[in-house]
User: Fold this.
Amino acid sequence: MRNRSVGTTPAESGMASLAFVVAAALACVVFVVLADVVTLQYTRQSVDAALDEAVRAGSRAEAPVAVCADRARAVLAGLLGPAARSGIVVTCGAAGTPPVVRARATVTRAAWVPGMPGWSYARTRRAVLEVLP
Assistant:
């Protein structure tokens, strides 16, 4: 004969395991959503660093647009993996009086949890083009 707790019926046995499974599944979903937010913040900071470095390098070059774009790609390659970089488009340009180097990144990223909205934003940086006298 099994040793049962006082007051339990055969219909109540196993209910704790169902509650544990539901709680564990909910905890996993919360963990994935939090990890998604953390990676979003890391991606945003990486894009900011790449744009800052790109306009800094482009403002000192003779071919500012090409140097800006190359430097942005290099910094993003060093900070993010191929999957994270796939949704990032960086464009550089130089115009204005005084001449200004501009870098713009458009980021589109799908959420990790199905049904959640994706992330989409744009970041811009600019620096005055340094002209030697």
Observations:
- The chain is about 50% helix and 20% strand.
